[in-house]
Amino acid sequence: MTQTDDSFVLVVDDEPAMCKVLTGILAQERIPCVSASSGEAALEILNTREVAVVISDLKMPGMDGLELLGKALEIDPTTQVILITAHGTAEIGQKAWELGAAGYVRKPFERDEIVFEVRRALGKHEAARPEASGPVLGGMIGRSPKMKEVQDLIAKVAPTSSTVLIRGESGTGKELVARALHGGSKRGAKAFIKVVCAALPETLIESELFGYEKGAFTGAAASKPGRFELADGGTIFLDEIGDLSPATQVKLLRILQDRQFERLGGTETQRVDVRVVAATHRDLETLKKEGKFREDLFYRISVVPITVAPLRERREDVRELAEYFVRQFCKEHGKVVVLDPRAIDALKAHAWPGNVRELQNMIERLVVLSSGTITEADARAALPAGEPAAAVGSSLGASRMEAEKAAVQAALAETRGNRTQAAKRLGVSRRTLHNKLREYGVE
After folding, report:
1. Is 201 in a helix, a strand, or coil?
2. How far apart are the C-alpha atoms of 244 and 196, rounded to whole Å?
3. Domain limits of the chain?
4. Which residues pair with 167 in a beta bridge?
5. Is 5 exposed, middle or buried (0-12, 13-18, 19+ CB in 10 A)?
6. Do domains 136-309 and 314-440 have the same CATH topology?
7. What is the assigned CATH class of domain 8-128?
8. Of 26, 89, 184, 283, whose CB is crowded by the most CB atoms within 10 A?
9. What is the per-residue DSSP string for 126-171?
């Protein structure tokens, strides 16, 4: 393959309207992209240019998405392929994972869902490239003794099927550890299913985890497999397991013990071969003493505990993390920015209550606002002066919104409210700036 330019995202769909929607979303996120109307046309691009991520419709005339997936990985194994379909089944989704798909999205999809999948795939492509620098294991960067300890544990535990409990504060990278465990196991080619326990209402969590049969409740027009069935042969990641109610803990305990369950409204026992990885930022020992977390479940999920240290306890990693994020956001925003060594010293002095997520958010803001070099003064100005750790529990979407809002406000201040000039500084159209102002309520 001959590389002629920087890598980008390739959208493949035989429906022009869908191509327009997807490329429009990526353009708004300033992610370079092109489109192709067929699998055959996509192959021509894949054979001549470096493609980081392919987003392809599953059902297309001629070469379908699964065939394109296989051929794309033959050309370049580091290319990440996301399949989109309106006719998905558990079997097709499983086959996509087995063939090496990086993502599988059902229509109709949410804008944020597509953006999240693409950004995650871009990160995986960056880490998989031979020239990718830095000590990266499953996306984790760092040379500190505490990070090395985590990496060594992952290397030992990943090839097994042992249940793992990942502990650490919000923003430390617990999901990256879970994905590294999955990727380093024999299950790596199978599905990795993430369940955010705290995000599922009590009334829905049983049907989400275990599925349901047709007619199990009002609105159940067809049977639906649960997350455990979808993860069969692979790994299920139970994030924030400390937030599960006692009633759900009982149901979860059985499947952890026997790998057996019944769908909601069903009588047939389902059996699955699933590795369970759990994570929490809560003190489970205290919850156990208070009767809020079952003792037997605690011992079942913590066969192998892995603790990810907060960033303030491994400040040696700040430099490599900051430099990695600068490279990442320069690519995303089409900028060339360097990080002054004295700026790194300023970053190391911060306590980072929001951990790696806070650092990532701050570096993006600095890259967006920078005219070429992130100086010590820039870094110190961006650091909160005695502010509480407001970003600790924030979502990635909220962090990105705060970064964008800060960049917009700074551009307006620098141009004394001239929106045309502010839009030019930000590299967006005046209409986009107007929409952002309305969105953030700063108009």
Report:
1. coil
2. 10
3. 8-128, 136-309, 314-440
4. 280, 307
5. exposed
6. no
7. alpha beta
8. 26
9. HHHSTT--S-EETTEE--SHHHHHHHHHHHHHTTS---EEEE--TT
Euclidean distance between CA atoms 187 and 156, whole angstroms = 15
Please list the pLDDT of the chain residue by residue as tens digits (443 residues): 333 335 689 999 999 999 999 999 988 887 888 999 999 999 988 887 778 899 999 989 999 999 999 889 888 888 899 999 887 677 777 788 878 888 888 888 888 888 888 888 887 777 665 444 333 455 678 889 999 999 999 999 999 999 999 999 989 999 999 999 998 899 988 889 998 888 777 777 778 888 888 877 777 778 888 888 888 999 999 999 998 888 888 888 888 888 877 788 888 888 889 999 999 999 999 999 999 999 999 999 999 999 999 999 999 999 999 988 998 888 888 888 888 888 999 999 999 999 999 999 999 999 999 888 899 999 999 987 644 333 333 344 444 555 566 667 766 766 767 777 777 666 666 666 776 676 665 55
Q: Which of 364, 376, 379 is nearest to 327 (CA)?
A: 364
CATH topology of domain 314-440: Helicase, Ruva Protein; domain 3 (1.10.8)
- Structure tokens given for 154: 């992952």
Domain 136-309 grouped into CATH 3.40.50.300: yes
Distances (CA, A) of 174 to 17, 52, 113, 123: 38, 25, 20, 16
d(Cα 204, Cα 86) in Å, to the nearest integer?
A: 23
Token pair for residue 53?
A: 């991520």
Strand 164-167 and strand 275-280: the pairing is: parallel
